[in-house]
Amino acid sequence: MSEKQAILDMEVCECGEKNVADAIEIFQNSSLPFKKAKKLVTECNKSCCRAALLKIYDMNQFGSFDFDEIENIIQQRLDRLKRLAEGS
Amino acid sequence: MQTPWKNLRAWLIKHQAIDNSVKEAYEIRRLDLSGLSLQSLPEEFALLESLVFLNLSNNLLSELPASFVKLSKLNNLDLKRNAFKTVPKALLQLDLGVVNFSSNELEDVGTLFDIASLRVCDLSFNHLSQLELDIQEHLNLRTLNLSGNFFKVIPQSIGTLVELQRLNLSQNMIETVNNSLTSLFELEDINLSDNKITSIDESFFTLGLEHVDLCANELRTLYLSHLEDLESLSLDENPLSYIELDESFAPYLQEFSCDSCQLSEFVPLSSRSLNSLCLSSNKIKVLPENISRYENLTQLDIDNNAIAHLPYEMTNMTRLQTLYVTGNPLDEASKEVIKVLHPDICDLNMKTGIEIEEASADDLTQMARLIGVLFQIEKDFSIDFDKQLAGITKLYAAEGTILLVAKYEGKVVGMVTMQRLISSAAGDYIGQIEDLVVDEAYRKMGVGSRLINKIRFIALQEYAYQRVQLAADMDNTNALHFYTRRGFRRTNLNVFHLNK
Fold first, then answer.
1. What is the pTM of this model?
2. What residues 408-427 of chain B have any CB closer than 8 A to a CB of chain A?
3. Are B237 and A63 inside 8 Å of each other by CB?
4. What's B280's domain CATH number?
5. Mean per-residue pLDDT for B85-109?
6. Which residue segment(s) compose the domain that B401 sits in?
7. Which residue from B173, B446, B468 is facing A31, i.e. has the nearest CB?
8. Which residues contact B363 (CB under 8 A, 6 or more apart)?
9. Is the pLDDT of residue B348 over 90?
10. CATH code assigned at B461
11. Edge-to-edge strand list for the sheet holding B355-358
12. Mutation test of the interface with chain A: which of B100, B105, B125, choosing the one with the most A Cβ atoms within 10 A?
């Protein structure tokens, strides 16, 4: 498990070049539903980081952030990409 | 000499899973041993024969003691985020109802589904690419989560789970929806999002599904038919350029979403029950005049298309509460239609550039006036500008307080405050939210949500308050709904005042 600041610094969206802290800030400054708020983060219509952003969005709605869970879901995606690149 | 129970009791107390009041093993029915970096469990664990619910998530377990089989009453087992590579054999002899193996390293599930009592099974985020089941039919499993694995095809063996109601196959590598699901007559809810699906077998459309999520796939065209029980369908983020509809399709559909696709034409769904329609970010140019036949529609999202004209018939859609239309080259007549419709939320009416920031001394006068707006609603308080200014000034100077304002072009249009209390229940500081108010002209623009989100984040994350709480006027139903939707839980406490 990483320190909270290290998790806040983790990149969550490559397209929009946003880290976890950026995503939280954007969601806090928006009252839009997820589909629209997500586009503010990604600045695109792709779905690569959808699962991680949905988790952060829901946590923001309910006011409590589980940073271990955020780290886990980002790590899972990276592991998965690595595994796919290795030809799994 | 220590007895096995004394050893186990000491171990459980050390890990704060029980307190000293527990004297006997049979008293323990629920146990939370999550997040303790455990690599193994003591053999004496089997003494907990009354255990019904066991949370072992977020540890480093890769096996369970053989004596686990003695936990004959265990029904709900959470093994999320551990290091299991195989399903422990001891589990197969238990009458488990719910098991969570999410985020482990399972490459096969062995004979897990031989547990006849199993009703809910979470196998998400493992290394599964196939599902080999020896059984003919599994009559109890209702919910199965296989998301985040490596399935390239929907396993044929899923067809043996004949009572399945909810199936999550999202975030796999599935390319086609084959006929494996044909025998799942009870299936109501399926999530196939984030795959690589390009085609769907026609047998899929004969199922009794109520909720279908096909977002983020590679569907280019789609022929929709039957699915007579369907209530919601999400097709967002597919490169869909054309959807053909059979007249038999989903007569009772309530929600349809096709956000960020490539549709150039409106999708003329036949359901009169539709209450939410999202066609945002497509290439649609024309809305049909008969769009008003969706008389139950409460949310319409058609932003970022190429629509120039909203049909005047839309003014008959009296239940429409939310309308997103920005990013379209709308003509003046369309703006008149929106005026007549007057939805609660419309992005055209939203003001951009409202900023949330910490209050400065210069804002206090405007804040005192805003509190007066709040007191017009709350019968317990009376408006007195001087008192409100004195109060907000004292609050501004006090330690541990947070004052946020929403500003538009330099004017304070919303505010919220929080002050620090000490809770003996929490054993630490907590935050008391007060005075959340938004100027009437700036309501329905999300200002209140942004204020509450921001102050809650500062309180819990930056000030590390153990809890935030607030009091709301029982007659202010809007406020009660607002807080409930944002995760606040209503308590049994009432507020009493004794004035000097």
1. 0.86
2. none
3. no
4. 3.80.10.10
5. 94
6. 355-485
7. B446
8. B405, B407, B412
9. no
10. 3.40.630.30
11. B355-358, B402-408, B411-423, B428-438, B468-470
12. B125
